[in-house]
Specification:
The chain is α/β, with parallel strands linked by helices and 365 residues long. It has three domains: 114 residues, no CATH class; 127 residues, 5'-nuclease (Rossmann fold); 58 residues, Beta Barrel (OB fold (Dihydrolipoamide Acetyltransferase, E2P)), CATH 2.40.50. The protein contains 14 helices and ten strands. A hairpin with a 5-residue loop joins strand 6 and strand 7. The longest helix has 24 residues. The C terminus is likely disordered.
Length: 365
């Protein structure tokens, strides 16, 4: 940064010195120097904005302006028969020399990604399919499951990692908070693991959008310019991208779709981990993290029991299973068998009779 500041100072001083020596305006040295400083400031502002632009867009703008200038020169040369002394003809020449280079700069900068070698090859191979880009965001990199999906071979195309996402990961990895620091380092390790996988193409994109500050909006614009898809597990980014017409691959939705299907009435064996929110409820979790809410299981905490599935609820956050624990009933023939072994045919007393016999009777006087 110090070299850039020094180069800018030297540039501004040189422009001011040239204006003071040459004096293009006959209004004094001070006015010429102020005019030169204003021009130098505009050039410095343009240079700072240009540094944040991808080189492919810069080359595209330069090539487009050159092509536009050449076409304008041919048009002006073709109008040799016109009266050059006419003000309308002079204005037409000037307008042509201005508007065509301008259109070339705008169109060339917008489609500058076609200057990439992979895109240039597709111009000569019409039968070859276009590259399918998958843009990774920060959350899915830190999550880490994308590495397992890539390793299975279900992800095709090119994985694009934007430079601003790498910068955000580096900031998280250098955080003073130990939890954030570990998450950032985990994300960098996941990227390194993906780059070493065979059959997975990974590219770092320098394309940036300096007018946009939010990283999510930059991801949407990058995916739109590459005609690719965003890979994320962020719910908000998923919704915003769909509203803007960009396709999204949500890792959470993929994980939910791969969970085993459970139907009401099935018997499951679960481990009751903690107490539920409602009365007499217990909570268990499957191996994939699915929550199971069990009625009549509060007293069975820290035990493995069999439950009957009553319903399944699918939400945006995941799947929830509701079940009921049925206690083992006491065999009805147990009291009768006891009475038979004692050689008595008297039937077993009913609960109402037992309560009546246990009630104290009033003493007679």
């Amino acid at each position: 940064m110090a070299w850039f500041a020094l180069a800018r100072c030297l540039f501004v001083a040189a422009v001011a010195y040239a204006a003071a020596i040459l004096q293009p305006f006959t209004l004094g040295v001070a006015v010429n120097v102020l005019f030169a400083l204003a021009l130098a400031a505009l050039v410095v502002v343009f240079e700072t904005r240009l540094r944040a632009t991808a080189m492919s867009r810069v080359f595209g703008g330069l090539i487009g302006s050159a092509i536009g200038l050449a076409i304008a020169h041919m048009i002006v040369s073709g109008l040799f028969w016109a009266d050059n002394g006419d003000r309308r003809v002079e204005f037409l020449h000037s307008f042509t020399l201005i508007v065509l280079p301008y259109l070339g700069v705008v169109l060339g900068a917008k489609h500058g990604e076609w200057l990439e070698p992979s895109r240039l090859l597709t111009l000569f191979r019409s039968a070859a399919p276009l590259r399918r880009y998958k843009v990774l965001d920060t959350s899915v990199i830190i999550d880490g499951r994308i590495a397992d999906v890539c390793e299975t071979g279900f992800v095709d195309g090119t994985l694009v990692i934007p430079q601003f996402v790498l910068k955000e990961l580096q900031l998280v990895a250098d955080s003073a908070d130990s939890l954030k620091r570990n998450r950032g380092r985990r994300g960098l390790d996941i990227l390194q693991k993906i780059q070493k996988m065979a059959g997975v193409e990974v590219t770092i994109s320098d394309l940036d959008f300096p007018d946009i500050r939010e990283v999510d909006l930059k991801l949407i614009e990058l995916a739109r310019s590459l005609q690719g898809k965003i890979v994320t597990n962020d719910f908000n980014l998923n919704k915003v991208a769909q509203l803007r017409g960009v396709e999204v691959l949500n890792v959470n939705e993929l994980a939910n779709s791969l969970k085993p299907v459970v139907l009401p009435g099935e018997i499951m064996k679960v481990f009751i981990l903690k107490e539920g929110k409602e009365y007499n409820q217990g909570v268990a979790y499957l191996d994939d993290g699915t929550m199971v809410v069990v009625d009549n299981a509060r007293k069975m905490i820290s035990k493995t029991i069999d439950i009957v599935v009553t319903s399944v609820l699918q939400t945006t956050a995941g799947k929830m299973i509701f079940g009921r624990f049925i206690e083992a009933a006491v065999p009805a023939s147990a009291p009768a068998s006891v009475a038979t072994t004692q050689g008595s045919t008297t039937p077993a007393p009913t609960p109402a009779a037992v309560r009546a016999s246990a009630t104290p009777q009033p003493q007679q006087t």
